[in-house]
Amino acid sequence: MSLPFDFDRITPARLPALLRAMPKAELHIHIEGSLEPELIFQLAQRNGIALSYPSVEALRAAYAFSDLQSFLDIYYAGASVLLTEQDFFDMAWDYFEKAAADHVVRAELFFDPQTHTERGVPMDVVLRGLHRACQQAERELGVSAALILCFLRHLSEDEALGTLAQALPHRDMFIGVGLDSSERGHPPEKFARVFARCRELGMHVVAHAGEEGPPGYIRSALDVLQVERVDHGVRSLEDAALVQRLAAERVPLTVCPLSNVKLCVYPSMDQHQLPALLAAGLVATVNSDDPAYFGGYINANFLATFAALPQLGAREAYTLARNSLEASFATTTQKAAWVAQLDACFAAA
Ligand code: HPA
Ligand code: ZN
Questions:
Q1: Fewest Cβ atoms nearer than 10 Å: which of 165, 179, 183, 227?
Q2: What is the pTM of this model?
Q3: Structural domains of the chain sorted by starting position, each given as residue range(s) with its CATH number in brackets
């Protein structure tokens, strides 16, 4: 990408304001991971559900994770307060208000229907609540929004096929499918048939790979699932040939810095490999993953990353924002309009 600006004139002191204000897309947010403890308690009370934590503070204090699984256990427990269409709407609406404040112009939301259908919540309740929030976000907040249905990889492929069948009557409410939950021991190829079916149906396809799992999982996500983006993908750096391929094919990676530190993928933010990913020519983006659990929304991720890593400056800010807009599944016309907004933002900086 040839970059149209003299980035050097933007001093480090002016970077935080620019990071906040620049238009950006969020491509890796699990909407159930945006459930703040306050809303968990409100919904539990509204729905008459008993929680195993006495207070909001006690719940928040439990958010100390040693790896992905230790997080997932508490994340699935938190999602158990969601029962009605209004619950799903309220959760997504809270996220959209924060996203709009962070200058997110496009959000592609992951949701985990199996977490809800296995508790007896009907698929259409989940989808209608989330979809209504997406439509209202577009209308009232100017945030373009879409849904990506994730299959839980710790469950079987037959269960994923059953979930797909339940979702198909609502095909117009989501744009694609993804793959999340416990990565180790559940390689992408376990879901070859269901992803092939989704591709035949014209859906966008993405998958988590290379967060905790090895680089081989990124390869099989590309080769077997034929994903259009890789979620996380940071462990690609362990395989030079894979890095070359990802760069040559311009496969976007949806990187989640605060998540990576909270789940101990990196010991601290100053060890995060985002600068190396960009230096290798990879199409990296910055995202929040599960912001209520990992300490911040998308702008908090940008600010924490740039504060800890002096290699990141205005040029990288522009590249990351532009990557996110171009890697989104919006139309070419929408993307061009947002890139023009981004250019105007940097020209005025
Ligand atoms: N990784 C895998 N599954 C998930 C995550 C994650 O970071 N967040 C919610 N489900
Ligand atoms: Zn994720």
A1: 165
A2: 0.98
A3: 10-348 (3.20.20.140)
DSSP percent split of the chain into helix, strand, coil, nearest 5? 55, 15, 30
> Which residues are 285's β-sheet partners?
254
Residues 6+ apart with CB under 8 A from 188: 179, 195, 207, 209, 217, 220, 221, 224, 225, 227
For ligand 1, whether the C-beta of 259 sits within 6 Å is yes
Residue 105 CA to residue 335 CA, distance in Å, equals 10
Q: Read out DSSP for 20-88?
A: HHS-EEEEEEEGGGG--HHHHHHHHHHHT---SSSSHHHHHHT---SSHHHHHHHHHHHHTT--SHHHH
The Å distance, Cα 181 to ligand 1 centre, comes to 5
Q: Which atom of ligand 1 is nearest to the CA of 290?
A: 8
Cα distance from N-terminal residue to C-terminal residue, the chain: 20
Please give the C-alpha separations between residue 57 and each of 44, 61, 116, 287, in angstroms, as whole numbers: 15, 6, 25, 26
Does residue 1 register a pLDDT over 70? no
pLDDT tens-place string over residues 172-181: 999 999 999 9
How far apart CA 290 and CA 202 sit, in angstroms, is 28
Contact of 153 with 184, CB cutoff 8 Å: no
pLDDT in tens, 85-108: 999 999 999 999 999 999 999 999
Which tokens go with 63?
């958010």
Q: Is 229 in the pocket of ligand 1 (CB under 6 A)?
A: no
